Amino acid sequence: MSVIGIPQNTVEMLQKHNFSIQKKYGQNFLIDGNVLEKIIDAAEVTQEDCVLEIGPGLGTMTRCLAERAGSVAAVEIDRHLIPILEEALAGYQNVTLINEDILKVDIGKLAEEKNGGRPMKVVANLPYYITTPIIMKLFESGVPLKSIVVMVQKEVADRMQVGPGTKDYGALSLAVQYYAKPECIANVPPGCFIPRPAVDSAVIRLARYEEPPVQADEKKMFALIRGAFNQRRKTLANALNHAAGLNLSKESVENALEKMQLPPNVRGEALTLEQFARLSLLLSKDR
Ligand code: SAM
């Protein structure tokens, strides 16, 4: 692996291009070669793969990916990084740079254009301010994906992996666990970035399930989950009764809970993924 993750190179690049770091874009550049290697290894990138990188930054990880993958599509929002990336990636014919907000990109179309619609791998050191919307977009859009290996805030990595009975358990945990098997690859301290983020980070691998682990009315289930966790201190029956767009009476929720042998005053935060799935089926029959 080329020595491009080392701190001097990053500082030199920033100075050479007189680049001012944009906090609003969550710019924390990875400078630790070992962590970089762990990310690429966890993604098991081969020449067969088309990789989507979100937020290539200065191109450090992009170059490593380009050396291992068949092709790389790198989506970067900050137009000031584009000339720097073009220079850093000169000579890599298999990289396509896209200057766009990832939340606005039609990833399905991109997969079609770049990989004939076959599943891509996502590898990224994500901008932390939009981690959840990015992960949700990747899953909910139904884009063909093999796996996602991303650097996220440690607290978010924890949220993705926990079950009921913990304060971190919520809509993100359920969504991630419905679509994928989460696995923590490494904990990463702030000193591995320039500038240092205020929080600890972690690399997480989300291996997409071919079939979801539970049978559910998917749309309904996610509406129930959103309703439950938008007002997590309320009982589930009250939270869903007040949730906009659901149109559920308190009685119908309590009846469904009874069929599931759950108490009428249970809170959503106590339900497992299996229970939310079952509830979605019971409540869609009611309608
Ligand atoms: N990959 C680089 C690295 O590891 O050093 C940079 C990672 S930095 C944490 C996040 C990157 O995402 C920045 O380059 C930032 O400009 C970019 N970014 C922020 N918001 C974005 C968005 N909505 N769409 C695409 N890129 C975005």
Q: Please, could you describe this protein's structure?
A:
With 287 residues, the protein is an alpha/beta fold. The chain has 2 domains: 206 residues, Vaccinia Virus protein VP39 (Rossmann fold), CATH 3.40.50.150; 69 residues, rRNA adenine dimethylase, C-terminal domain (Helicase, Ruva Protein, domain 3, Orthogonal Bundle). The chain is 41% helix and 18% strand. It has 12 helices and 9 strands. The strands form 2 sheets. Strands 4-3-2-5-6-9-7 form a 7-stranded mixed sheet, sandwiched between helices. Strand 2, helix 3 and strand 3 form a beta-alpha-beta unit. The longest helix has 14 residues. It is elongated and about 65 Å long. The mean pLDDT is 93. The protein binds S-adenosylmethionine. S-adenosylmethionine binds next to strand 1, helix 3 and strand 3.
Q: Please give the order of strands in the largest beta sheet.
A: 4-3-2-5-6-9-7
Helix content: 40-55%
CATH level-3 fold name of the largest domain: Rossmann fold
Quaternary form: single chain
Strand content: 15-25%
How many distinct folded domains?
2
How many E strands?
9
Please identify the structural class as seen in this structure. Answer: alpha/beta
pLDDT < 50 runs, ≥5 residues: none
Gross morphology: elongated
Assigned CATH superfamily of the largest domain: Vaccinia Virus protein VP39
From the 3D coordinates, which CATH architecture of the largest domain would you assign? 3-Layer(aba) Sandwich
